[in-house]
Amino acid sequence: MIAPSILSADFARLAEEMAAVGGPGRGADWLHVDVMDAHFVPNLTLGLPVVESLLRNTGTPLDCHLMIEDPDRWAPGYAEAGAHNVTVHVEAAAEPVALAKNLHAAGANAGLSIKPNTPLDPYTDLLRHYDTLLVMSVEPGFGGQKFMPEVLDKVRAARRMVDTGHLNLLVEIDGGINADTIEQAAEAGVDCFVAGSAVYGADEPERAVEQLRSRAADAFAHGHR
Ligand SMILES: O=C(CO)[C@@H](O)[C@H](O)COP(=O)(O)O
């Protein structure tokens, strides 16, 4: 799956930018929306009122990545608004099990994200309550950063736990994904790739999505033969 990150889109033309990457069946599978509060990360983007408008203007499922403090308080609002997947950071959530239950009760899938230096091991039991694991492959906060291949060990570990039935979730990766880096991520076992600058920085964003998808599919098959 490919989830273009609208962080790299033109914020004055978000409806057109979402349409430019297509939708289910042709183009983007999900649209990735980075919510940043200038506290959990040193950047400020958008919040619930904008997400509500985005939901009214697209049929593509929204994948909301909350890089915010106190997600226990704020994340359920994104689920109630109709986001398909709401991801919170394990480093910020106070009661992640209760939070996942609240997200499910509000009708969304629950995602848990880990920063590059956060280990996976302490959270594997917790992940049984989640539908998505978002492995950050850059320090969260900004688009256009360099991919950190060292996080792929966490992807491989998560993939093994999914393939052996210990976990039941999608493995997602975010940060520095482009035509050069997507193959190693796919070989490690990623299911869903977030890409911002590689999609919205391309001359033809929808074509960039399809190129990423085809490279990932070939590499995934290669890594799991
Ligand atoms: O969450 C983030 C950044 O914190 C990402 O979703 C970025 O939007 C990815 O941008 P690229 O690295 O693909 O340019």
Which ions and ligands are bound to the chains?
A: 5-O-phosphono-D-xylulose
Total helical elements? 8
Tell me, rounded to a whole number, the average pLDDT: 96
Number of domains: 1
Characterize the overall form.
globular
The beta-strand count equals: 10
User: Uncertain runs with pLDDT below 50, 5 residues or more?
Assistant: none
N- and C-termini, Cα separation: 19 Å
Topology as a string of helices (H) and strands (E) = EHEEEHEHEHEEHEHEHH
Which class best fits the helix and strand makeup? alpha/beta
What does the main sheet amount to? 8 strands, parallel
Function: Catalyzes the reversible epimerization of D-ribulose 5-phosphate to D-xylulose 5-phosphate.
Binding site for a divalent metal cation: 32, 34, 65, 174
Enzyme class: isomerase
EC number: 5.1.3.1
Structure report:
- Catalyzes the reversible epimerization of D-ribulose 5-phosphate to D-xylulose 5-phosphate.
- Keywords: Carbohydrate metabolism, Cobalt, Isomerase, Manganese, Metal-binding, Zinc.
- By secondary structure, the chain is of the alpha/beta class.
- It has a single domain, classed as Aldolase class I (TIM Barrel, Alpha-Beta Barrel).
- The chain contains eight helices and ten strands.
- The strands form two sheets. It has an eight-stranded parallel beta sheet with strand order 1-10-9-8-7-6-5-4. Strands 2-3 form a two-stranded antiparallel ribbon.
- Strand 5, helix 3 and strand 6 form a beta-alpha-beta unit.
- The radius of gyration is 16 Å and the shape is globular.
- The model has no long low-confidence stretch (mean pLDDT 96).
- The structure holds 5-O-phosphono-D-xylulose.
- The site of 5-O-phosphono-D-xylulose has 22 residues, from strand 4, strand 10 and helix 7.
